[in-house]
Amino acid sequence: MERRRRVPNPLALAVLAWLLWEPMHPYELGRRLKQTGKDRHIRYTRSSLYMVIEQLARAGFVTAQETVRDSARPERTVYAITEEGRHEVHDWLRSLLAQPREEYPHFAVALSLLSLLPPDEAVEVLRRRSAALAGRIEETRTTMDEARADGVAWIFLVEEQYALALLEAERRFVTELIESLKQPDYAKSWQETMGGRA
Amino acid sequence: MERRRRVPNPLALAVLAWLLWEPMHPYELGRRLKQTGKDRHIRYTRSSLYMVIEQLARAGFVTAQETVRDSARPERTVYAITEEGRHEVHDWLRSLLAQPREEYPHFAVALSLLSLLPPDEAVEVLRRRSAALAGRIEETRTTMDEARADGVAWIFLVEEQYALALLEAERRFVTELIESLKQPDYAKSWQETMGGRA
DNA sequence: TCCTGCATAGTCAGCACTGACTAAAGGAGC
DNA sequence: GCTCCTTTAGTCAGTGCTGACTATGCAGGA
């Protein structure tokens, strides 16, 4: 199906995409990722950034162009994307968009063990989640509104729109789940099967 | 906020939960994870299972009980959960349920780069995704129906229900996105800004 | 009787990732 | 002109994870 990528870390895709624009040194890349808020959807730390760029260089997707010593700053290596790198971006992007991947949200694991908790405790923690989700939904909406007010086109906000859709779906799910757990027959059957545990 | 877990891998939570039931050897644990389909929501391979159990033992959440040499099979070490382990399961479970974590779905990264693709190409790949999503939705529904027919209680299917809710939300999102991309003014503005690239 | 394939059970080398550290320059405050 | 904090820029040790490998028993066919 999907052949394994030479550098599977999604951070690598973002790096390649920025280098499509112009050559840059790692620190600059990191700054742009932060500034444009793209780091909200990618697991990003400075050390992993350097690691990933090293891997990209080994794979031949980028090349070290020059080592600049601007005035007196620590020296910075500027990287440029290669032809192979350009190809990789497009191929990877198409495949990520076309094929849903198995994702493993932590919440799903927790849900599969929900029966371990007494019903009232389960309801309590899920209420806390619901409130937290409401907060995130609010935040995301604000971010998007502000961006739109700054004239950012909708196409550059699709990933936020997607995050919002998922958050809202999860919130609906949690709300319904809480209702189900509050039914007296659930409490009863839980007592019968799990009540006598250590 | 959330203090870091000694063994953060979610597979560890599943392992501890099974050991709550009775002591077991690693291979047996793996078999049960597969049989009950819990491996669909956890990143699971045999090697990571052994690694995780080793980590749990170091952390004091499980202890090696005995090394059995049943007839002639390779010897198997049986592990039991400790008091600390029991505590960890409940604490971890509660915190996973109560606090939404930052998840980093690959699709979000891809979406943030959607503007790189020509509109008609974007529409084409997203249509493929939509079809794939429909397939998964169908599969999940079937799995759940079969389980229910076998008398499995709803509480043991919540994680599937959750997966279904997310899949359906994503499908709706993709459908709407395709419609937006098909608008002639998007093609026009894409031509203007991106048309003249390499 | 031998061979092949499959299920059981576990090990390990190599690489990826993270948190913590280094180090120099710029600027604020006194 | 001195001190201290922040920003810029990058390194590295330690640990975690994955794919590929090892090894044994057993069933069934030729």
Question: What do these coordinates show?
Answer:
The structure is a homodimer of 198-residue chains. The first copy, chain A, is elongated and about 70 Å long. Chain A is mainly alpha-helical. In chain A, strand 1 and strand 2 (76-81) form a beta hairpin. The first copy, chain A, is built from 8 helices and 2 strands; from the N terminus they run H-H-H-E-E-H-H-H-H-H. The longest helix of chain A is centred in the C-terminal third of the chain and has 31 residues, at 119-149. Helices cover 63% and strands 7% of the residues of chain A. The first copy, chain A, has helices at residues 10-21, 26-35, 46-59, 83-98, 106-111, 119-149, 158-182, 184-194; strands at 62-68, 76-81. Chain A has a two-stranded antiparallel ribbon with strand order 1-2. The model of chain A has no long low-confidence stretch (mean pLDDT 91). Chains A and B meet through helix 1, helix 4, helix 5, helix 6 and helix 7 of A and helix 1, helix 4, helix 5, helix 6 and helix 7 of B. The first copy, chain A, binds a DNA duplex (30 and 30 nucleotides) through residues 8-9, 25-27, 30-31, 43, 45-48, 50-52, 55, 71-76.
Brief write-up:
2 copies of one chain form a homodimer. Chain A is mainly alpha-helical and 198 residues long.
